[in-house]
Amino acid sequence: MSPLNCSFHDVDKLMKVLQLAVHVPTFILGLILNLLAIRGFSMVLKKRWPDYAATCIYMINLAIFDLLQVLSLPLKMVLPHVQAPLSAFCTMAECLYFISMYGSIFTICFISVDRFLAIQYPLLVSHHRSPRKIFMTCCAIWVLVWAGSTPVYNFHDTSGEYKCFHNMSNGTWSAEVFFPCEVFGFLLPLAIIGFCSFKSIRILLGRGHYTQDWVQHKASICTIAASLAVFVVSFLPVHLGFFLQFMVRNGFILECGAKQNISFFLQLSLCFSNINCCLDVFCYYFVIKEFRMDIKAHRPSRAQLVLQDTMTTRE
User: Fold this and answer.
1) What gap in Å lies between CA 147 and CA 267, rounded to an integer?
2) For position 298, what pLDDT does the model report?
3) Mind listing the pLDDT tens digit for each residue in 200-240?
4) d(Cα 77, Cα 110) in Å, to the nearest integer?
5) Which of 86, 144, 215, 308 is the most buried (most CB within 10 A)?
6) CATH of domain 3-307
7) Which has more pLDDT, 4 or 187?
8) Helix, strand, or coil here: 189?
């Protein structure tokens, strides 16, 4: 088949079935679990326990981004298969989806940095960290992702027919737009999260021979490793698919079969990356469980320094 006549009808038809099978249970579970997570962490904040305030703020922020991603799934299932009623409505749906994705990435990145600093420099961090500063950090993340969403406004050429999440303009795939988004939106956060996670695990392993909290440290090591694995599995295939599609749209890949395979891979990786909004829930509930264990024990939360990013906060 000529590259000029390359059809993606079969790919889109198959993805329509797969998206239905993945997105429906993801939407139901993600909606329920993230709402419960927000409620749970909000209740902890209302009780004014300073030991857990910073972690709760970060976790609520991450849960809100995950909830936005969940709410965007019905739009992502329907809009690619119908003509968009208004270009502004299409832009809103695409902004909602990508803001939730990159908001989650940046929030996880800041949590990893904060956790590493709490493990490496606990005394220093305790004097320079407060719920107000964590809240301002989360606000900065929202400003960052909203500002970074400006390329979405030019995703489509409104002079012709288009469908949401499909047939993006050539300008969207230009090197000037693509590489900054790829580098600052994924590769840099991945490097930071990987560095902080490996350093945190190394420090905890080094403390295993002389600490009385080795059981908590061991659990924390597993949690950090699992969080890193979930992040890589959720977001690495998507950004690899973006890169391959960039190669297609800029004429580096011309063979029709390769284009079809890349289109399928990109849509499939986007589909399964949405499961991340459910996987994050395991992190939320492990943290809440740790809160309860520390409260019942009536002792300072040393495990919280390691598990997610909590330590005693001083105004």
Assistant:
1) 25
2) 46
3) 889 888 876 555 566 666 767 777 887 888 899 889 999 99
4) 31
5) 308
6) 1.20.1070.10
7) 187
8) helix
